[in-house]
Amino acid sequence: MPVVGTALVAVGLAYAALVPNGAAGADGPQSQQIEEGRRLFAVGCASCHGLHAQGGTNGEGRMAGPSLIGVGAAAVDFQVSTGRMPATQPGAQIPQKPPVYNEDETAALAAYIASLAPGPAIPASDAYDVSKATQEEVTRGGELFRTNCTACHNFAGRGGALPNGRYAPSLMSTTPRNMYQAMLTGPQQMPVFSDAVLLPEDKRAVIAYIVALQDAKDPGGFGLGRLGPVSEGLWGWLIGIGLLVLVAVWIGARVPKVHRKQE
Question: Which parts of the sequence bind heme c 1 (predicted)?
Fold first, then answer.
């Protein structure tokens, strides 16, 4: 019996030393956040994505919402914080709109989806902090942006049209955090730029370049969408030459007419 008692005491001490962190976690803040996210998901997301985020179909058997298992917290944070999710209606592309959930609710939803399966995590702030970016980083970011992004987002980051009613949105109001998350997760038509494809320091350089575009001034007074010779040419032809034509007509109307005397 003393041996059994000693063994029980030893097991109890080992359990107390090793398990409390996990046991506390079951009722701790992280678990509560996940449970809150599960509740929010069931109310606002399950109708499209399925009760367990496995994906859902509409009444006609068509996909209503893709599976979210394995997409990670970063994808949820991007989609929800930009108001793209929950979507108001299906379409070729879900537009950005004011967010439905606040920051705490968004974090809870992200924590719940992250608890289902591994996926890209929300990046730490220093991953996208470009407040101290050097001119060299901005220049390198511009090179990477023109190589990988301008085909869709325009060389000035103003967005552009894509086939089948889709489009690349303007980046002029996108936050550095969401830029990083978009590259990491590839929302909608955007390809995924994982850390194996685009290194974290390269992502930060691209963000520094886009932020420089956001802060850039227009020396001429009018940016004209920064679309280059297209908008500038239209301005020249429609406005410039149009004004010249009006001036010519006005001058012609003001010049007195000379009448020949009948012989």
Answer: 45, 48-49
